[in-house]
Amino acid sequence: SKSRLKGGITGFEHEMDGRYIEQQKLKADLREAVAANALHLMFQPMFKADGTRIECAEALARWVHPEKGSIPPDVFIRLAEEMGIISQITRFVLFKACEECMNWPDHIAVSVNLSARDLRDADILSVVSDALAHSGLEASRLHLEITESSLIDEPAVVRAILAELRSRDITIAIDDFGTGFSSLSYLDTLPLDIVKIDRSFVRNIVEDTRRLKLLRGTVHLARELGLKIVVEGVETHEQLVLLNKYRSTDLIQGYVFSPPVPSKEIGILSQALNRR
Ligand code: C2E
Ligand code: CA
Ligand code: CA
Ligand code: CA
To answer: Of 201, 244, 270, 272, which sees the most CB atoms within 10 A?
Structure first.
């Protein structure tokens, strides 16, 4: 730090330096893990609201650090963005997710998260084509999730990329809807198919009727725009009952039905539903 040049290091600065060094170490380890394809994926199913069928599963990246154990994706994805290596992670996840989807029943799609960075570069179009070609997966079984913050920087570029992906029969979902800046009227102008309503909308719907009204209103408007609805983070049976009572969603992704699971569990879960 600057003051070290002046000769003085306070205890606070020691601590800051310690944290800084730790962060640099974590970054170096992440760079190594990504280069070695050492991340792995879990998949969280999205169920039809009545729970009778799995329609899609979201690929969620996992990093188990050799000493520190499991590092949350919120942490290492942000680091990867800062380091400029997120596109390598996206590529890995796309290839792996498409491969795994080929092992599931035909009606189940796979959904992959894209970072804002991925959408600023038309290279993403060839990465997606390569992942589909390499796995043999039909484009109609690939969904891509983008967040509202992806749309801020270069809206024209992002819009063109999304339109191109959609023209190839890929489904586009807006993720964490309701947590960002945009309004539904803005959504209307974007090439989108699915709205994933953020779990913060669901959290208090049982206790607070105003929260339920807000959720129902949001869903109603999204439906008017012709979008399909996924409600995220449904944890309890009470929440599930309310959502179904008001037909407030098409699909549900949440612990009430399933946490993220290894790929092979998707087929097993799906078969178990068929037998019921
Ligand atoms: P997300 O895209 O919103 O993913 C859903 C997160 O909610 C997952 O956390 C999932 O485990 C969690 N979740 C699912 N159901 C419930 C529930 O009922 N209750 C609660 N409290 N949580 C639930 P996870 O796996 O820790 O992922 C966190 C975030 O990391 C993701 O949020 C996504 O933004 C990011 N992420 C994960 N994998 C990738 C990836 O491959 N690429 C990119 N760009 N981002 C990723
Ligand atoms: Ca997501
Ligand atoms: Ca989400
Ligand atoms: Ca998120």
So the answer is: 201
Instruction: Tell me which residue has its CA closest to atom 12 in ligand 1.
Output: 233
Which residue has the least CA distance to atom 13 on ligand 1? 233
Cα diameter, the chain: 73
Q: Which residues surround ligand 4, an ion (CB under 5 A)?
A: 176
Mean pLDDT by groups of 10 residues along the chain of 276 residues: 52 74 94 97 98 98 97 97 97 98 98 95 96 98 92 85 97 90 73 94 94 92 93 97 94 98 98 91
The DSSP symbol for 72 reads: P
Within its chain, how far is the Cα of 176 from the centroid?
8
Look up tokens 């669901």; give the residue. 202
Output the DSSP codes for 38-90: --EEEEEEEEETTSS-EEEEEEEEEEEETTTEEEPHHHHHHHHHHHT-HHHHH
* Beta-carbon contacts of residue 83 (< 8 Å; ≥ 6 apart): 27, 30, 31
How high is the ipTM of this complex? 0.96
- Closest residue by Cα to atom 8, ligand 1, is 60
